[in-house]
Amino acid sequence: MNLITSSCHSSTRLFCDNALIPPPLRVSMAMGLKSAAFPFCPRPFLHIPRRPFISFAKKKKPQAEPVIKPSIIEELSMVDDEEDDGVEDDIFDELVDDDGYFEDEYFAEEAEPSAGDGAGGGGISLAGTLWDKRALEIAEEVTVSFDGELGIYAFKTLLNATIQVRVERLTNKSGSPTMADIEAFSTRYRERLDEAEANGSIPGNISLEVSSPGVERVVRIPQDLERFKDRNLYVKYVTEVVDNGSSSEHDGVFRLISFDSDASSCTWGLADVRVNREKSGKGRPLSKKQKEWRLNTPFDSLRLVRFYSEI
Questions:
Q1: Which residues form the Ribosome maturation factor RimP N-terminal domain (predicted)?
Q2: Is this prediction's pTM over 0.70?
Q3: Residue 47, H or E segment
């Protein structure tokens, strides 16, 4: 049996349900691994989940300058032979700020996004506080300063005085910003929030999180169809049953053939991806029938359209 050990730096801050847990001077944890669980490799595999880059902008004390801290999460997945249960541990990279302090940030696993949820599905979601509309106005003013290169994909405020922003790059086909884009937006927005805190238009304890839309970003209908018409897309849609008036939900990986904004409908074909090719036999290409298959859907029947990645 092999052992994996992990140690926490004495200045690392640990949180559980947003509550600070005072760590001991040195914490070690050991996990037993049976080598038989990894027949092809003597060491466990590291899997990096598909999450958006995230940058935190926080005020330094006593100065009011933002500290940008990108965080990378690695997920260690291990399989137990006897019980066939998955054990997942998040391994956090410790990031050092200018004062020499380490800090760990935890990101909860997100539920499936929905269009307009203010998070992975894009759009705006306000908590209804006295300050969130002003915070949104400031964010929109900051995007103007980037001369049309960056835009707000999603904006969300939480009751715990947190602002979550997902920015997109408007000048490339993928819409994905770079880490430099995220840090630049974070810095400018944090500066403007500090000014608003100083004049009392927003509270003085605002936390800011800035990230990208994510690898599997939601496609907004119909405004994003032209922009992402060449992408393979995962589509969840409903169809009406004529006999009893009920509806049924379906999904698939499609490519956009065409769309008609006036008729509020679009036409799909099967995407040339593994999950579709395997339906005609392992190792075989799409069949002629699959290539000619078409699906017409009204805009209002589309429940979710997002990027599809085979990685």
A1: 160-216
A2: no
A3: strand 46-47
